Structure formats: structure tokens, C-alpha cells
């Protein structure tokens, strides 16, 4: 549940069946949080009644998405929550040729295993590796990046986070009803739209969760019905909260299924009474049957409609729909490294592609001749322009558009750029963009990525076309999850 992008406060998939692990429930039934050490279950079925074969396996290594790999009858089985070196009893289910494994009982436990502090861990899926120590998480991410980047250069040691919880400055909570017709709010269970009622997500900002709980408690008395995806009835779909970790400013976005929100003034007043720390409240209208959280239409119900936060010594104004890195502590390390890799002398023309609200470009502007930012999301571009004014930056320009198209046009006009800093969404960049980078011939390309797999693809393209990867820095921006951020430095050969 990390990035990204654009309006992409995306839910984790469609209304598919849950694919993984009853381990959680099993544990709950055992009344403890750790791996089940209970008796061998002989029924050979999981909590969903899915029949399978019980087998004893030993895990040899991890997949890049943090699952344990074991061998069973000559086949490779991926088992979520199983760690290298562990011996365990698993339930094997087959679908066609595919075999999948579910952890039932750990027989010999790894020293890398810890009890996940979150009681919803095995059900939720937002985090995938809370069962690993911090050290093991870092080692796992380092190994993943090392393997992926083998064709290029040995990556630097990963920058980990000292306090790897409470870090998210953005949270979204889904609302609905349980079978007793009580209002519930929480995260979706893995691969479904089934809400797991929860009061606290350990990677969220604690204040954000407090506010969500207050809202949950207010809905009944204000006669605000949660939206029902199946019947299309009800009003409140989600609550999105953004917190300025340094400024303390807080934005609450009430995502509703229709624009009509009866009693909204009283609702807003009551919420502000409970939480005077809230600095702005918005209503976002999402009428579509979609897995995107936010819709187009937006109304400011209180405050200025944006929050401001400080990052890298500058102030940034952030809209509801603009992308802003979710872990500001690690973002400062990431940006610091990216700007260091750009080796700016004060004269260069720097392109900040996929620039969001302009953070990287504006922070780099002090060390650059001039900065050109390009970004697709209109609200983010508006924020970037405001942000350059707010910080008195005179040498930066921001443009709205597709980064690939923008670069093609720059190359066609024979314009010049010394350094390209790029930070595309998870899908990576595209050929239009990369081929134009090659035409523009910047001396350096600094590639920030939240998905090393697509980054590897793009690095291969750049290496084939005149660039050399000189350094790679992994940064743990998303502790407890399998995601890892990387920044690569490329120089013109
Ligand atoms: N560099 C910024 C944003 C990175 S997230 C930061 O560090 O905060 C990636 C950004 O790419 C998002 O803001 C998203 O809106 C934008 N984006 C996605 N597709 C794009 C495209 N085709 N052209 C330009 N920007 C795009």
C-alpha cells in the first residue's frame, strides 16, 4: 500500500476472492499472535474450507514479494509468511498446474521471525513482512535489489528507518456495514473489498486514526450512511487523511458517492470541535464504480483546501489529489541522495520529470542553473507553481503534460538539459520518454523508482543507448511492506 500515483489511491484489486492465508484466523483461534504451534491439523482444509494436501517443507529462500519458497514433489511452492531455514507444515492447494502453499504451523522457527505487532496482519495484506525483524526486512530488501541490479552495479547498503512504524502521512479508510448492520471502517482484506474493521493501523500516523475513529462514531447520530458498493445506496465511501508531519496541519477528505451531503455544516462543526487540530476539510465526490478512491469533483468545506508541510528545508502546499511521498523521514534521505548523485554546480539545466508538487526540483533548484518540471496531474502542477512562489524560487518552471510527450517536444526543438531527474510511477517510464532522454544527451540521469523491476527494464534501455549505471541506492520508504525505493545514477558514456 505504498505509492502511487496521480489519483491512484488505489484499492488492492477487484472483488476477487481472498487468495491467501488463514494462518491469521488459525492464530486467533489459538488465542495468540505468533505462529501456531498447535497440533497437526489432519483435515487438510483451510479456513475457507478449501481442500488441500498437508505437507512438511523447508523454506530455502524468499521471492521478491517476500514469500517463502519451498520444494514439494519436485515443484516450487510459494508460501506467504514462511522464512528461509524454517521447517513448517503447509497446506497445498492446486488450481490447474499452479500449486500454492499456505502456512499452517511453523515447526522450526527462524531467528528472523517476530510476532507481528498488528492483530490484523495476516488478514489485511497492506503489510506483508511484519513477521520479520527490522534487520531481516532490511536484508531481504537489500538482497532483492542486489539480485535485480546484478547486470549493472553493486547497490549501496539500504537506508533503513529508525522507527519503522507510524510513518505514513496519508491514510485512507473504507466505510461499510457489517452483517449486524453496524457501521464499520477499516482496510480491505487482501485482494477483496471486504472491510476489516480496525481502529488502528500501525503504519499510519496515530492522529489520523484518532480522527477516523471520531468520524466513525459520529456517522450514526448525523445519519450519514456508509456507501454500499453492491446496492449503490448510502453516502460515505472513504475518509482520506493527509498529515503534515512537520507542520502538524491536517486535511480530512470525506469521499462521498453523491454530491448531496445533508447536514454537512453541522458534521464539519462537530468534527472540528472534537479535533481542533484539523486545518482543512474537503468533500470529494466519487460516483463511479471504480477502485480509485478519489473522484474528480471536490468541494472545500472548511479551511483552505490544502495543507502545507516542510521537506528538505522548503515549504510545500499539498492538495487532496496531488502525490506527496508518504514517508517524509525517508524521503529526505532519498532526495538527499538523488541530489547528491546529480552533482550540481549551480549552472545546470535540470529536468524534474514526473515531478508531483515539485519537491525534488525545488529542493535541487538552489544548486542548479534552472529547473524544468513536468507532471501529468493538474492539481499537482498548480501546487508546484505555488510552491516555487512560496519558497521564492525564481529559476524553476513547471509544465502540465505527459512526461514522454514533453520530452519528445523538447528533443524536437533541440533544447538542452544537463541533468534529468526522473521519478515515474510504478509502471516505470516509456520509450517516448527514454528515447528523448537519449536525444537530449544530458550528462547525467538520476532515476528514482518505487518499483525496481520496471526500473531495471528502463536502465537496460539507457545502458544500450549510451548511458552507464554508476551507482544504486536503495531506501526503505515502506517498512513492514515488501516495497523498496531505489535511486540510480547514470552517466553519459
Ligand atoms: N517526484 C515526485 C512525484 C513522484 S510520483 C515526488 O517525489 O513527490 C510520480 C508522479 O508521476 C505522480 O505525481 C504522477 O501524477 C506523475 N505521472 C504519472 N504518469 C505521468 C506521465 N505520463 N507524465 C508525467 N507525470 C506522470
UniProtKB/TrEMBL annotation:
Pfam family name, one: tRNA_U5-meth_tr
Protein name per its UniProtKB record: RNA methyltransferase
Signal peptide (from-to): none
A biological process term (GO) from this entry: rRNA base methylation
Ranges for domain TRAM: 51-94
SUPFAM superfamilies assigned: Nucleic acid-binding proteins, S-adenosyl-L-methionine-dependent methyltransferases
Region (Disordered): 1-57
Residues reported in the UniProt entry to bind S-adenosyl-L-methionine: 325, 354, 375, 423
Keyword Iron belongs to the record: yes
Active site (UniProt): 450 (nucleophile), 450
Species of origin: Pontibacillus halophilus JSM 076056 = DSM 19796
Domain of life of the native organism: Bacteria
Segments of skewed composition (Basic residues): 1-18
Keywords: 4Fe-4S, Iron, Iron-sulfur, Metal-binding, Methyltransferase, S-adenosyl-L-methionine, Transferase
